[in-house]
Amino acid sequence: MTKLKVGDQCPEFSVKNKDGKEIKSSDFIGKKPFVLFFFPNNIGYYCKSEVCEFRDAYEKFCEYGVEVIGASPNTVESHNKFAKKHKIPFNLVVDEGRKLAKTFGVDGFLITDRVTFIVDVSGKIVLSHSALLKSTEHIEESLKLVETLKAN
């Protein structure tokens, strides 16, 4: 599948979070915008950096009324351990078999691509940002956009 782009409708999804709780797109669409960022794994410098930078900016996203969700193919147990160790306040979800990444068109050859999407309250994708080794760009670009969403 080709990567979803700005203007596309967010596909329906249902995944488990770090606590084994089901998280669905319908939990947010029609209620609040959300950031969905894909990262390859709970290990490695860039993955940890990206997740922790979203953690550090999480309060700002909350001020704008935006939820944050991080997705990788790691297990519930792995996400739970990672979240506790790094004090991650938002949902880390299990992308079992990289199905969610495939649905969004970001399933790379060997790993999930590092891509961030922002979905507005109506369910439309309003940002699609990809930067493989520049984890801070994902947060900077996302915050710029959610600030404009709040202004509108």
Automatic annotation (TrEMBL):
Family: Belongs to the peroxiredoxin family. BCP/PrxQ subfamily.
Domain Thioredoxin per the UniProt entry, residue ranges: 4-151
Keyword field: Antioxidant, Disulfide bond, Oxidoreductase, Peroxidase, Redox-active center
Enzyme Commission identifier(s): 1.11.1.24
Record's catalysed reaction(s): a hydroperoxide + [thioredoxin]-dithiol = an alcohol + [thioredoxin]-disulfide + H2O
Subunit structure of this chain's protein: Monomer.
CDD domains xrefs: PRX_BCP (cd03017)
Protein name (record): thioredoxin-dependent peroxiredoxin
Keyword Lyase appears in the UniProt entry: no
Catalytic residues identified in the record: 47
Any one cellular-component term (Gene Ontology): cytoplasm
Source organism of this protein record: Dictyostelium firmibasis
GO process terms (BP): cell redox homeostasis; cellular response to oxidative stress
Record-linked InterPro entries: AhpC/TSA, Peroxiredoxin_AhpC-typ, Peroxiredoxin_BCP/PrxQ, Thioredoxin-like_sf, Thioredoxin_domain
The UniProt record lists the keyword Disulfide bond: yes
Gene Ontology molecular function: any one: thioredoxin peroxidase activity
Highest taxon in the source lineage: Eukaryota
Any Pfam family the entry gives: AhpC-TSA
